[in-house]
Amino acid sequence: MSGTLVLVRHGQSEWNLKNLFTGWRDPALTEKGIAEARTGAAALKDHGLTFDIAFTSVLTRAQHTLDLILEDIGQTGLETIRDEALNERDYGDLSGLNKDDAREKWGEEQVHIWRRSYDVPPPGGESLKDTGARVWPYYMTEILPRVLSGKTVLVAAHGNSLRALVMVLDRMGRDEITSLNLATGVPMVYRLNADSTVAEKTVLGDMSAAH
Ligand SMILES: O=C(O)[C@@H](CO)OP(=O)(O)O
């Protein structure tokens, strides 16, 4: 057995609440989002998890989620690496548009394809595959080596940058990944084998409410 990797999606943001495509835009967490981060922290505490290093994106909602978690588990000041490789997928021209307005304009199916397909990018933005093209190398070079050295590593990031990682860790195919939605503030704990495969996955909360 090797180390432990914990992935957590940021809590609800102002734009999640307003139902807007967000991508690389930088809204703050809502009160609910703050509460979700704290619930995630409590679950980590219950499981006795403490961390050696944390990673997050350059976006406020993920950094704030990480700060809240570290505060609640008593690890404020933990070494943290911020990198835009972990940012949300770039939603391109859809950024800032209302998701229901987009469904009315382009149809339910097209919007679902842009949001959840593997390789169809939204206009001017990144597909999940494009997002993976920056997340996977970053994981391989910066995150995985630390886990394999026996460390416990926390990653606070975004719905789609984490879907790209979960796709690889859970060995999901391009069809399966279209139905994967990650809930906000719910930690996923991966214990990795020395060969980097997953020995055990535990979800600390309810993923079923995710959409
Ligand atoms: O708007 C976004 O950036 C993301 C995450 O909130 O939305 P979606 O669920 O459509 O991938």
UniProtKB/TrEMBL annotation:
It catalyses: (2R)-2-phosphoglycerate = (2R)-3-phosphoglycerate. GO terms for molecular function: phosphoglycerate mutase activity. Keywords: Gluconeogenesis, Glycolysis, Isomerase. The active site is at H10, E88. Its EC number is 5.4.2.11. Substrate binds at residues 9-16, 22-23, 61, 88-91, 99, 115-116, 159-160. Pfam families: His_Phos_1. The record marks H158 as: Transition state stabilizer. InterPro entries: His_Pase_superF_clade-1, PG/BPGM_mutase_AS, Phosphogly_mut1. Pathway: Carbohydrate degradation; glycolysis; pyruvate from D-glyceraldehyde 3-phosphate: step 3/5. It is an enzyme of class 5 (isomerase). Catalyzes the interconversion of 2-phosphoglycerate and 3-phosphoglycerate. HAMAP family: PGAM_GpmA (MF_01039). NCBIfam families: pgm_1 (TIGR01258), PRK01295.1 (NF002339). Belongs to the phosphoglycerate mutase family. BPG-dependent PGAM subfamily. Homodimer. This is 2,3-bisphosphoglycerate-dependent phosphoglycerate mutase. The lineage of its organism: Bacteria, Pseudomonadati, Pseudomonadota, Alphaproteobacteria, Hyphomicrobiales.
